[in-house]
Amino acid sequence: MESNTKWQLSGSAADLYEKYLVPTIFVPWAEHLLDRALPLSGEAALDIACGTGIVARLVSDKVGGEGRVVGLDVNTGMLDVARSISETSYPGIEWVEADAGNVPLPDDSFDMAFCQQGLQFFPDKVGALREIRRLLRPNGRCVICVAQELGKNPLMQSQVAAITKHIGVEASAAIRAVCALSDGEVVRQMFLQAGFVNVHWETVSLALHHDRAKEFVTSGIASTPIAGLIANWSDGAREALINDILDGFGNHYDGTALNFPHVSSVVIAS
């Protein structure tokens, strides 16, 4: 099976992802997913496409020392950051470098599985969902979120428009991919094909905020696959790109701060 090689981050890009994108975007979504899954003390949880591990860390607090938490990702750079953060505060979390479609773990290992903004990047989405189902115990549950279309998500829409203008359409593909699985009903059908039952999805919009908009956008771009394309740009060229991204937020940017919706399909299945 082809591995998921999109959004490969390493070194400073993965560190910036954890510092800027995780608190603003991925902590709120992780908290929402945990609220839907209702983890219990002693349960076993799998965080698929875990990135720098925010879902794994938060669910570890819920399942406690008697529980088990595994974070899985194909991205070595992301896992390096996840391990460095957790080695003292969350030493019990297991980190596994593997593709979601071929997980080196036994059947019936987990009570719950999470996938935050990762399914849209899997080459074989139904195959990955079958693998998740294999790993879940009877009556186990899976909770995921995937971003809806660009028009509902100012963060990605503004980046795509500015990157297309300054670099080209092809360069914006990595950001477009975030919103490439925008139809929740399509996702629901994938779950059913993979053998899940009681599959429910709904549109969820979280209100996100950052006090220092320019710092957030600048560091955010540096923590995406675009970083390498603009690494040798002049300060003026980079500033023009950042300003166009900020302008693209429209009335969600007040000149200082960002207040914007982030809209996803949330799927709960058993």
Describe it:
This protein is an alpha/beta fold and 270 residues long. The protein has 10 helices and 7 strands. It has a 7-stranded mixed sheet with strand order 3-2-1-4-5-7-6. α4 (125-135) links the parallel β4 and β5. α1 (12-37) packs across α2, α5 (154-166) runs antiparallel to α10 (235-248) and α8 (213-222) packs across α10 (235-248).
Task: List its salient traits.
single chain; 270 residues; alpha/beta; seven-stranded mixed sheet; globular; disordered N terminus
SSE map:
Blueprint: H1 12-37, E1 44-48, H2 54-63, E2 68-73, H3 76-89, E3 94-97, E4 110-116, H4 125-135, E5 136-147, H5 154-166, H6 173-176, H7 184-193, E6 200-210, H8 213-222, H9 227-230, H10 235-248, E7 258-269
Parallel strand pairs: 1-2, 1-4, 2-3, 4-5
Antiparallel strand pairs: 5-7, 6-7
Helix pairs in contact: 1-2, 1-8, 5-10, 8-10
